[in-house]
Amino acid sequence: MTFESVADNLRESFRVVAAGRGKGEIRELRGVSIASAGVKFQMFNAAFLSSPVSTEAELTQRILLPALHFDSRELDWAYWVCEDMLEPRTRRASRRIFERHGLRHSVDLPGMLAERVAPPAKPLPDLAIRKVHDAVTRDDFCAIAAVCFHVPIQWFLEVFDNLAVWDRFDAYVGYRDGEPVSTTAVVMGGHAVGVYNVATVPQHQRHGYGEAIMRHALAQAYDAHGIERSILQSTPAGARLYQRMGYRTVAKIAVYASSQRV
Hints:
By secondary structure, this protein is an alpha+beta fold. The protein has 2 domains: 2-109 and 252-258; 128-251, Aminopeptidase (3-Layer(aba) Sandwich), CATH 3.40.630.30. Helices cover 35% and strands 30% of the residues. The chain contains 7 helices and 11 strands. It has helices at 2-19, 56-72, 88-100, 135-149, 153-159, 209-225, 239-244, and strands at 25-29, 32-36, 45-49, 78-82, 103-114, 128-131, 170-176, 179-189, 192-200, 230-233, 248-258. An 11-stranded mixed sheet has the order 1-2-3-4-11-5-10-9-8-7-6, sandwiched between helices. The protein is globular.
């Protein structure tokens, strides 16, 4: 099932980040996977369903297990839910069940898949693209992410403070006239290339930089692994670009987040 590629790759991307941090933690509970970076940015202290859920009682149990894990560590956290793993009746009640246990709905992200990306519809812009491999490129990557995802840069810097993270989280920064303008990253998992952190700073959007750096990252992944199938989670702003590149929606990812601790 194609949605499983999306769910598996998403989970793997968080495992890669967690494994690269000294405070990171990866655990398998009954029906739940935990990949926690152990950081302030709660989206990177993550839980995932690892098998299908049939009933509301079963979903409740799958919420309580990671809640106990993160509460015992006094960490804010997020549940990244591939809704295709929920039985339809349970799916319809899921938001109410999550909210009952203190997890507010944050965002829905269509999970998209392309067996092979389509050729560019128009020439791509010139962009100097560097792989993240040192403190300078890391800081540029984090600065763009902070601006585009509207969170403090310190949160991203904490997540990526150990350069060991970049051993399997292959990230790239695009530069225009020496200025960092765009990013993307790829992670292998679920028999696909997962595309993450596609972002362009607002003043440089609509010039094709995001597509250019994303295609570069996919080409590098193909050269290294020989895999063309790729997946991503789309924001509304990126959906038209991805559809033009040949992606289709195969899953729905709902993200729930715990309340920030004071």
